[in-house]
Amino acid sequence: MPGLVVVGDGPGAPAVDPVLAARVAGVDEPSLVLGWMVDRRPWIGALGPARALTYQPANALAEAARAGRVRYLPVRLASMPALLAGPLAPEVAVVTGVVRGRGFAFADCVGYSDTAARRARAVVVQVADGPDLGGPPVEGPVAHVLEGGERAAPPAAREAGPLDRRIAEAAAALVPEGATVQYGLGRLPEAVIGSLSVPVAVVSGLVTDALADLADKGLLIGPALASYVWARRAADLVADDRLRLVGLEELHRGQRMASTPRFVAVNAALEVGLDGAVNVERVGPRLVAGIGGHADYCAAAAQSPGGLSLIVLASTHGERSSIVRTPTVVSTARSDVHVVVTEHGVADLRGLDEEERAEALIAVAHPAHRAALRSG
Asked: What is the pTM of this model?
């Protein structure tokens, strides 16, 4: 696509206005591909309609996506490298890096940035403050270097409440010793990691300070493998050989997770249908997030020998039931969900037919909504 500019994503996404960066690289009227962005940037509010795509219309991009200034690309995170090597091949990649020797390395968020840099005609590197966390080198044709890169500060740890602990402890009890665990961003998945009492390895798209806490307990087997890190203790994890950062191509290479025995995916949801299908994208008609890696990791866990695809969620969001007859949209297929845990119990869907799955899920719904789910 002529004039396409791909911007690196994650909490360490470039702060520079990508339109200005593109002009520096010789592209005057760029179209943009954006990813997961945490901090609001002034340039986001100035985006014109239909000039930008994103796979993750949440956080900093949520308002722009709802206003139509950023279009939603409903794809799995793991498919982004293939798209950047094909129909979304960039002319310019704008990435965040740290100085390493005479060149640059990716900072705390690699994601698809290394793919974009290798495929681009020109690479613009915004240099970030902070330590070198051992990410892969920037291999593309670096044409311009900009100063002033910022990293979004990781959020302070949130204390899990009684309901969260009940869900987390029930889910953690299902994780076998020696499993390889992936966990999603959010209070409940992190609470599950905090509730583990057996040693596990970690291979995850994102890791947070929950990984450091796991290591402190002596429960982390080997270094974790991740593509994004958003942790206050990231430098300590790398220095202690507890974390290795790679790009998405490397993270997902050769069906790594699906072929790993006892791969356990721990993820949250907005809604779970009575057939087990999961919605992580919409609340009613309102778009709140993208598919991200949810479908990737659930599918990998479902295929792993002895694997487990775990969904953790409260039985209600406000007054709405989070167990519904039919999800607003299907982000993750019912075939890739093994177990759903709410504060009302554990619904193990493995080996159940459609009617049995529905009954198991109604049993973990909030009691106030069970009759409606049966009669609806």
From this structure: 0.95
